[in-house]
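As noted in the main text, all predictions were made from sequence alone. Below is one such record, for Alpha/beta hydrolase family protein.
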Amino acid sequence: MPAEHVTAMRNAPMWETFEKVAPTLRYNAAIMGDTMRGNPESMKKWASVSVPTLVMDGGASPWYMQHSAEELANLLPQGQHRRLPGQDHGPSDELLIPALVQFLKNEDHIQAGTR
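Prediction:
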């Protein structure tokens, strides 16, 4: 993680929560590997996910998160990508909920199993 992101996180109101979950981050890194960098080779393990999958990112998220979300959605047979404008890694409910509801109500992928 870039040093400037660590500095910003330390100044964020949720830093105390971040400290509490810090011990779990090594597991996140072990599972995700280079996926967060958008490395297509590291994402191939997800290519067998055949169910409709929504991959989202925020328009204010770091470039590498946006890139990896796009690459992952493109790799998945039934992947869809949505970017939430002006949002970062913790999107507002006002934008997140409608995007999820729209995806979950999409009759095309539910009935036909298509993209």
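The mean pLDDT is 84. The domain at 3-111 is CATH 3.40.50.1820 (Rossmann fold). These features were considered when defining construct boundaries for the mutagenesis experiments described in Section 2.9.
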